[in-house]
Specification:
Layout: H1 5-9, H2 16-35, H3 48-52, H4 60-63, H5 66-78, H6 86-100, H7 106-116, H8 125-144, H9 167-183, H10 188-204, H11 210-222, H12 231-243, H13 249-253, H14 268-276, H15 299-307, H16 318-333, H17 340-354, H18 368-378, H19 386-402, H20 407-414, H21 423-427, H22 431-438, H23 441-456, H24 462-481, H25 489-504, E1 505-507, H26 529-545, H27 558-562, H28 569-582, E2 587-589, H29 595-612, H30 619-642, H31 648-667, E3 668-671, E4 680-683, H32 693-706, H33 710-723, H34 729-737, H35 744-767, H36 771-779, H37 783-798, H38 810-814, H39 819-869, H40 880-889, H41 895-909, H42 921-935, H43 941-960, H44 964-980, H45 988-997, H46 999-1003, H47 1006-1012, H48 1019-1036, H49 1042-1064, H50 1072-1092, H51 1102-1114, H52 1122-1157, H53 1162-1171
Helix pairs in contact: 2-6, 5-6, 6-8, 7-8, 7-9, 8-10, 9-10, 9-11, 10-12, 11-12, 12-15, 14-16, 17-19, 18-19, 19-22, 20-22, 20-23, 23-24, 24-26, 25-26, 25-28, 26-30, 26-33, 29-30, 29-31, 30-31, 30-33, 31-32, 32-33, 32-34, 33-39, 35-39, 37-39, 39-41, 40-41, 40-43, 41-43, 42-43, 42-44, 43-45, ...
């Protein structure tokens, strides 16, 4: 027993792995003991042996080993243990042990389980609960071990006729389970489930008493309370009906069910009431089902196995399940009068069915009542079933993730007759959006085609049809804008074509043979102008989303990523527009250009055709100009339709087109070298009197950025990405000029000057208006006018006058105010109008400043594109100072602008890997000088960090061209400013970054730092100077000559001694930490001196340090600091050790000279000594 007792403890472990390991070890050990056991001979009653072997009366010791019998008894007793997971571990071990033993009977084990789980009167509630569960788990082990239906007789039984199982033991087990089910309501479902397991075991077995066992089960289940139906009896019926086809089920199921087959459609209504488990007046609902549980009843698993068996796909009854789901689930669990608890069960049934049904039968699950309840509980977080509704959404998303082809079917259901086209909006979720992102391209194409088919459906309600078109347009836009949806050219082109046709043309006839799907739809009614305007806006918005402006930074692939494809989306749309303009049979253009515009368009088309033929190094730039020209033409056409009259916006578009044509003609020229050779295209340079073509194009792009539309912004960024390689100094200056800070009042003045010409005519018309019209306009003013009127009335009342409001009496008309009152009224009225004027002016200033900030933010996109596309361009230098101005002088309302500028400086320019080419040295020196001036007066640490990064960037540029002298000069001036000026904004990090980045240049600053340290304004700044020297010694000594290093260390030796000595005399106030740093610097100097030249002598004066050590001991302030004294001793010891090493070296040299004088070289003598054998 000593080998198995320790294994019982781990059977109660909370770890499943430990329980299983303990079970395996225990069963294997007991199996070995049983194999070595010899059965005892049968003893007659009343004999002497029988009296001596008085023990348990369960008969286990007759055929089983003592260890096995003990283990069976202990495992049965352990089922009632409340410790951790004892019930699970002991039941698994008992099941496995009974499945391997052929020396016990089912009746024997059932008797032991029942005897060991009797309820005593003195038991507490918890003890009674443990005993009942012990009986349930024990009877379940008899079933699961196979002992209940085992046909083999006992292998070592004295009487070979003894069988392991019998009909009586089966009846006894079912009887105990029925009693257990009636004992406690919370045990009912578990007990009936165990009965079902016993029935399954009997059905699958080949015992001789199978029919009698099923008949007895039928009798005890139905005859006791025939008219009371519960989900448990339904489950038993579903198990017994296939096994007992000859039984008269009609008499058994009546009067509750109409059909003999319990899953027949005629019985679905009764099944719904039973499975709903709601006690009511009907007789089948008066059942003792206990409290509500959040888990589904096990009968649902049996029902699903009957309708949709997973093991036998050919036996699935999908049509019957659809009717069952409609009646039992949708009309019963999701009924109008159902409680939230029953609807919760309905959602669980839906989740279970979602994993079982085929893809073709998936729509049958989205029934009317289910969709209503689902949308209702999804829409608000405070609804009872909001969490389970979200779980349904997650299951649907996971289903689409595994089977993308199901996404199209699911979306049709969510937006169909039982759902809502605004499903995501109603539920405040992104269900449809997430499903679309998980679909494949074929599913997206099917979805788009179904949306187009909905447009072709006739609808008498014009308002509803308009709303449906708007919704479809929104769906198309969402498909394009959702970055998670896999993009494919065919369906994107289909959407763009549809927006083009709906927004720019009027469909006259249906075209079945055309390539455009938008023309395949019969024009049922004319679309409204609002819808056409929406389509035009969405067309431009989709083109903006489909036009990226990113550059890859992975080696040589950057230029290829920066170039556009052979045909961009805007070019494809432009091709479609040209095709539709020629198709007068099916469509009519909504805008008819004038003769001048037609000539301009013809010239633009010729320019585009010419740009498409450009090849070679300037191919990318030509594609960019082509994109800009096409985008301008499309924008002009949309703007012409959106505005009733030709205004400044349309004129600007025409001017932009003319500018693009002129720039393209000047920028790309052809040289005919030979008739047989291809034409080579180059970028030509115009005369100095005319603006450069690249500047003309960039000016057009800046005009695009002034408009707050995503389309123009995307086109401007993409175009500049393509033509950035052709940028010159004037181009960068033109971009930088847009970032200059201007007074908001000047911006307002410019706007007023621009609108002066347009408002002059309105003023003349206003002058002709009558006074009555003015009064009526004033009375009908907005809230601001009413507020002004109230202020005037208050001013009049405050001075004894009343405003003429409504009808007045004759007496009030005769009352007049004197001169003093009139003067007071005039002052008050003047104050009111002045405040009104200042408020308007302030609002204009704020709006102008906000617009200017947004415009600069868009211009910074061009700067970012240029730094990414052209990292080696020398024009990057011209960006530094303007970006610094934005970073350091932006206000709180321009925080985003300053952060973006700082990001370009720190992450783009300061981190360029490749050196700039053809740099202007004088200009770079000017920039560095300006940066140091700004750094000395910086107002924040963030600004100083940015200035430091930019300074290092310019230093790198200058060092690459050999201008280290200018760099050192400016850093020397900054060091002097940092040491001698108290208000200096520089800090030690500014110089440490420079020394760390350029150690060789930092070494050349050593004397400047040391010579300037005595001039420091305070001891703290002087200590920071020694910190810089520490960094220089650590990083830069290898860059200097040995004599220079030794002389500098000697000079540093004197300064450190003098500084610490002055601290001992209290001439300088130094903290203990600062003294420690000085000693560490001294130790660093000793080490560096020994590394540079091991033969140096008397570089450090050890006597001076010994004297300093005595002064520190005598100092009241530092004498008690053991750390400082220890550091001083370490310096002194290091110097003495170095001097001792020098004396030893001199002695070895003298000895070598004496040996050489004797005629034996010292090297030969050493070699001879090494060759002597050691034997």
């Amino acid at each position: 027993m000593a080998t198995t007792l320790s294994l019982f403890w781990n059977l109660s472990s909370a770890s499943k792995k430990e329980r299983i390991n303990a079970t395996v070890k225990l069963v294997n050990s007991l199996e070995k003991f049983q194999g070595q056991h010899t059965p005892k001979p049968e003893v007659s009653p009343g004999s002497e042996d029988d009296e001596e072997n008085v023990g348990p009366t369960d008969g286990l010791d007759v055929l089983n080993a003592h260890d096995v019998a003990y283990s069976i008894r202990r495992l049965i007793r352990g089922l009632a243990s409340p410790r951790e997971s004892s019930r699970l571990g002991f039941s698994v071990a008992l099941t496995e042990l009974l499945s391997r033993l052929d020396t016990v009977t089912s009746a024997q084990i059932i008797s032991m389980i029942v005897d060991g789980s009797k309820i005593q009167g003195s038991m507490t509630g918890q003890e009674e609960r443990d005993v009942l569960f012990a009986r349930l788990f024990g009877l379940a082990t008899v079933i699961h071990s196979g002992l209940l239906v085992r046909q083999t007789p006992l292998s070592t039984s004295p009487s070979s006729a003894t069988n392991s199982s019998s009909l009586e033991s089966y009846k006894e087990l079912v009887s105990h389970l029925l009693v257990l089910a009636e004992k406690k309501s919370w045990l009912r479902e578990c007990a009936w489930w165990t009965i079902g397991e016993a029935i399954d075991a009997v059905i699958k077995s080949s015992v001789s008493w199978k029919e009698e066992a099923l008949a007895s089960t039928l009798e005890v289940v139905y005859e006791r309370e025939k008219d009371i139906w519960t989900p448990e009896t339904v489950a038993i019926t579903l198990k017994l009906q296939p096994a007992m086809p000859k039984h008269d089920w009609k008499s058994t199921l009546t009067p509750t069910f109409k059909d003999s087959a319990i899953l027949a459609p005629a019985n679905f209504s009764s099944l719904g009431h039973i499975l709903k488990e709601t006690p009511g007046e009907d007789e089948w609902q008066q059942s003792n089902t206990g409290t509500w549980k959040a888990q589904l009843h096990y009968v649902w698993n049996i029902i699903f196995d009957n309708f949709l068996p997973e093991s036998e796909p050919g036996c699935r009854r999908n049509a019957l399940f659809q009717e069952f789901f409609r009646v039992v689930v949708d009309e019963t669990l999701f009924g109008v009068s159902s409680s939230p608890e029953r609807k919760f069960w309905g959602f669980l049934v839906f989740k279970k069915a979602l994993r079982r049904v085929d893809s073709t039968d998936l729509p049958m699950l989205f029934t009317k009542n289910f969709m209503r309840s689902w949308i209702n509980h999804l829409s608000h977080k405070d609804r009872h079933l909001h969490k389970i509704s979200l779980d349904v959404v997650k299951d649907i998303q996971n289903l689409v993730q595994q089977n993308p082809e199901l996404g199209y079917t699911l979306i049709l259901q969510l937006t169909g007759i039982h759902g809502s086209q605004q499903f995501d909006k109603l539920t405040r979720t992104k269900t449809i959006e997430s499903i679309l992102s998980r679909m494949d391209s074929d599913g997206i194409m099917k979805y788009i085609q179904s949306l187009l088919e909905q447009i072709d459906e006739s609808n008498n309600d014009a308002i509803a049809e308009e709303a449906k078109k708007n919704w479809i347009a929104d769906q198309f836009t969402a498909l394009v804008r959702n970055g998670a949806i896999p993009k494919r050219e065919d369906w994107i082109q289909l959407i763009l074509n549809w927006f083009t046709v709906q927004g720019l043309y009027l469909v006259k006839r249906k075209s079945t043979k055309g390539l455009l799907a938008a023309l395949h739809v019969t024009p049922s009614s004319l679309a409204s102008e609002d819808f056409r305007r929406i389509c035009r806006g969405k067309l431009l918005g989709c083109l903006a989303d489909l036009t990226p402006s990113t550059v890859s930074q992975k080696g040589d692939k950057a230029p290829k990523e920066g170039a556009i494809d052979d045909e961009s989306w805007i070019s494809k749309v432009f091709t479609v527009v040209n095709h539709l303009d020629k198709d007068s049979k099916h469509v009519t253009s909504l805008s008819e250009p004038s003769q001048e515009e037609q000539l301009l368009l013809q010239q633009a088309h010729k320019t585009i055709d010419h740009l498409k033929q450009v090849d070679g190094d300037v191919r990318v730039a030509a594609r960019g100009v082509e994109l800009l020209l096409s985008a301008s033409l499309l924008h002009r056409r949309c703007a012409n339709l959106d505005d009733d009259e030709v205004d400044a916006g349309i004129l600007e578009a025409i001017v932009a087109i003319q500018t693009c044509i002129a720039a393209a003609a000047t920028m790309f020229s052809t040289d005919n070298k030979s008739k047989n050779r291809r034409k080579s295209h180059t970028i030509s340079q115009p005369d100095s009197d005319f603006p450069k073509p690249i500047d003309m194009l960039v000016d057009v792009l800046i005009g695009f950025l002034e408009k707050s539309t995503s389309y123009l912004r995307a086109m401007a960024n993409k175009t500049f990405l393509c033509i950035a390689s052709a940028a010159t100094e004037t181009t960068i200056d033109l971009i930088v000029a847009q970032l200059e800070r201007r007074n908001p009042a000047d911006l307002v003045a410019d706007e007023e000057d621009e609108t002066e010409s347009t408002t002059s005519e309105d003023e003349e018309e206003d002058a002709e208006c009558s006074d009555e019209d003015n009064e009526s306009d004033f009375d009908d003013g907005n809230e601001a006018a009413l507020e002004l009127r109230m202020k005037i009335e208050d001013a009049l009342k405050a001075n004894g006058a009343e405003a003429a409001i409504g009808d007045t009496d004759e007496e009030s008309e005769e009352e007049l105010v004197d001169d003093e009152q009139m003067m007071a009224i005039d002052e008050h009225l003047a104050e009111v109008f002045r405040s009104r004027s200042s408020d308007n002016k302030q609002n204009k200033n704020v709006n102008a400043q906000r617009e200017a900030t947004h415009f600069k933010n868009r211009v910074l996109d061009l700067v970012d594109i240029f730094t990414r596309k052209m990292p080696q361009s020398p024009h990057n230098l011209r960006l530094v100072l303007p970006l610094i101005e934005l970073t350091t002088k932006s206000g709180n309302d321009e925080r985003q602008l300053s952060d973006k500028a700082r990001g370009i400086l720190n992450n783009r320019l300061a981190k360029l890997k490749d050196p700039l080419q053809e740099v202007d040295r004088e200009y770079a020196e000017t920039i560095l000088d300006e940066l140091h001036i700004k750094a000395r007066k910086a107002h924040s640490s963030d600004a100083l960090v940015t200035l430091s990064h930019c300074s290092l960037f310019i230093c790198r540029v200058l060092t690459n061209v050999g201008c280290e002298t200018s760099v050192l000069r400016l850093y020397r001036e900054s060091i002097a400013d940092f040491m001698t000026r108290k208000a200096s904004s520089l800090n030690i990090t500014f110089f440490k970054d420079f020394i760390t980045r350029y150690p060789a240049l930092g070494w050349r600053l050593r004397d400047d730092v040391l010579d300037t340290s005595p001039k420091a304004i305070n001891a703290y700044r002087k200590c920071q100077a020694f910190q810089l020297l520490n960094t220089i010694l650590t990083l830069s000594t290898s860059a200097g000559d040995s004599q220079d290093v030794l002389s500098f260390i000697l000079k540093l030796h004197t300064s450190v001694l003098h500084f610490i000595d002055s601290a001992c005399d209290d001439q300088v106030s130094l903290s203990a930490a600062q003294i420690k740093d000085l000693f560490k610097l001294a130790m660093l100097g000793v080490r560096q001196a020994s590394k540079v030249d091991s033969n140096n002598q008397n570089v450090w004066d050890s006597g001076a340090w010994r004297t300093l050590h005595g002064r520190l001991i005598a100092s009241k302030r530092f004498g008690s600091s053991t750390a400082i004294l220890k550091l001083c001793s370490q310096v002194e010891s290091a110097l003495q050790a170095q001097h001792g090493g020098q004396h030893n070296l001199m002695a070895s040299k003298r000895k070598a000279e004496e040996v050489e004088a004797e005629g034996v070289p010292s090297d030969a003598k050493r070699k001879k000594k090494k060759s002597v054998p050691t034997s």
